[in-house]
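Note to self: keep these together.
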Amino acid sequence: MMDLQKIHEFAIMYHALYENPKTDEIEVEDGFADKCFSFGFEMDCGKAFIEIFSEDAFYNTEAFEEIIDNVDDVMLLGSAIFSKWRCITHWDYLPNLLEDDSRKWFMSAFSRLSVLTSDNERIKERLNAKHLDSKSDVQMEIEAIMLRKIKKELCDDTIVKPDSLPLDTSGTVYISPDFYSEENKIIGEIHAHIGRLKGAQPDKIASDVLKMLLFEKERGIKYKKYIAVCDQDEYKQLRGKSALAESIRVFGIELLLFQIPEKDYKRLQENMKKQNLSA
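Structure:
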């Protein structure tokens, strides 16, 4: 079970640091990753957050502030904060942690995190409960089902879901694919989604394609690259005539389509409707 009190104290402390104009960069860097790991937050390059909201909300402060009040999952927000911090501290082209735009993003994020982990008993009861029908939980369950199907389809028991993989030998940049086999040189992404892609959703697929290609180039090794989906309409769209579909073909990324149990299909569909993500 999450220790909401410790996460709450963590949120209050870092909100104050980002709010204080005298804070030094070292104060928001040292020990931060260890704290995030201790809470179970994931450094997933913002993947889970982007899947539910948008890439723009992850990278753009104005877009982030527009949706922040709709974020009600402590782990999702904590992982987004951890991933944002990691992106800024390990990618030279991004602004530093204490640049004005970054400060605003983190202040909004930590403010929301402090609210979600407050002493309010109703909030604590809701957050500590196991909501199997929340978007993130349903997604994780379906991704686990699809991963088992992938291993069976490819006849490969070496495939795993890695925590993170170093992008290069420096070990400063990481990616987190949905499945991977070092032994058999396989890397892939799972997209648990119903219906045609819309809005920023194609950008998410494009980002996954780019990460796999970059990983392959940096490693200097040829990998079998996959994108796995569970919906016929999305599968057809990714095999269509768009620039994204052409990129998937040209770069040799194989599309895999798997049927999931009807009850899980309906659960995912219902949760997408609640999140206004359905086609």
